Amino acid sequence: MRKLIAMLIALAFLTPLHAKVHVAATIPDYAAIAAELGGERVEAISLIKGAQDPHFADALPSHVVRLNRADLIVLTGCGLESGWLPPLMMQSRNDKIQPGSLGYLDASTVVTLKEIPMTIDKSQGDVHPGGNPHFYLGPAELYAVAAAIYDRLKKIDPEGTAYYDGRWSIFRATYQRKTAEWRAKLAPLKGTKVVEYHKSWLYFLDWAGLISVGALEPKPGIPPSVRHVTDLLAAVQGKNVRFVIQEIYHPQKLSHLFAEKSGAKLLLLPSMTGAAPGTDTVWAKFDYIVNQLTEK
Ligand SMILES: [Zn+2]
Predict the structure, then answer these.
(1) What's the average model confidence in pLDDT over 216-224?
(2) Is the pTM of this model over 0.90?
(3) Cα(104) to centroid of ligand 1, in Å?
(4) Weakest mean pLDDT among 46-50, 126-130, 160-164, 222-226
């Protein structure tokens, strides 16, 4: 008994005295970044998986539990999660993560959004009425989000400042090394034309110097029709479209048809971490995308 008590006391001293910072991210990329920056001081989870469509996720009771204990929520914003997150936020009964609090990080406020329409029109079911929310596919945008997560972690857990500073310098160095590597690999593809299934890839394509000449979806969130795909085929005739790129969670029938008729190669790419095998970090996600695009 005495031995057991001694062991328990020893264990109590071994366990860090501070409670972990609980980070809830809507998509796995932000959770992966928070885990990388937070190390042993942070516990990070993602509400949805990389293979799910973030526009149309289900609001699950388990999400409420996770949000209830969160010290920080990181969301994309720009309407990406507006179909499922707001009721969960309300049901979480957690004041720490409500809009305007230190524990609420809307990533769309720290990046420059693209494709912001002149007028907002949701009438036709467009799921990008406030601009393109898929900036987690842009290495530079994702780096800006990482910087914002780093800043919040220090504010929420100031005792860990030196620890977070150390991990941030590693993250920054990795970013510089990896982006140089990706740019070198992608350089020969500059100006290559692609067709997207959903308009998710703009931030990545702009960063890499590739050009999107159209999307299989007539509007973001509206499934492709044979009519639209036929029109698009006619429009890109002779334009040398090299790739059709899409997420794994979209149907592939019309993508295959388009690829076959246009001579382009269909690539199923992970838009979020974990959507393809071995892509559990943001570095591995972009490695995968770059390798697929540059594979001979
Ligand atoms: Zn979208």
Answers:
(1) 95
(2) yes
(3) 22
(4) 126-130
CA of 15 to the centre of ligand 1 (A): 43
How far does the centroid of ligand 1 lie from the alpha carbon of residue 269, in Å?
15
What count of other Cβ atoms lies within 10 Å of the Cβ of residue 65?
12
Per the CB < 8 A criterion, the answer to whether 219 and 125 are in contact is yes
Nearby residues of 114 by Cβ (< 8 Å), 6 or more positions away: 131, 132, 135, 202, 203, 206
Dihedral sign from CA coordinates of 221, 208, 277, 41: negative
Q: Which residue has the tokens 């001081």?
A: 41
| pLDDT (0 to 100) of residue 118 | 80
Q: Taking residues 31-37, report their average pLDDT.
A: 98
Domains defined along the chain, listed by start: 2-179 (3.40.50.1980), 188-294 (3.40.50.1980)
Q: Exposed/middle/buried for 134, CB within 10 Å: 0-12, 13-18, 19+?
A: buried
Rounded to whole angstroms, the Cα distance separating 29 from 178 reads 16
Tell me what the pLDDT averaged over the chain comes to: 94
133 Cα–ligand 1 center, Å:
6
Helix (H, G, I), strand (E, B) or coil at 116: coil
Per-residue confidence at 126, pLDDT binned at 50, 70, 90?
Answer: confident
Asked if residues 198 and 246 have their Cβ atoms less than 8 Å apart, the reply is yes
Ion ligand 1: residues, CB within 5 A, are 220
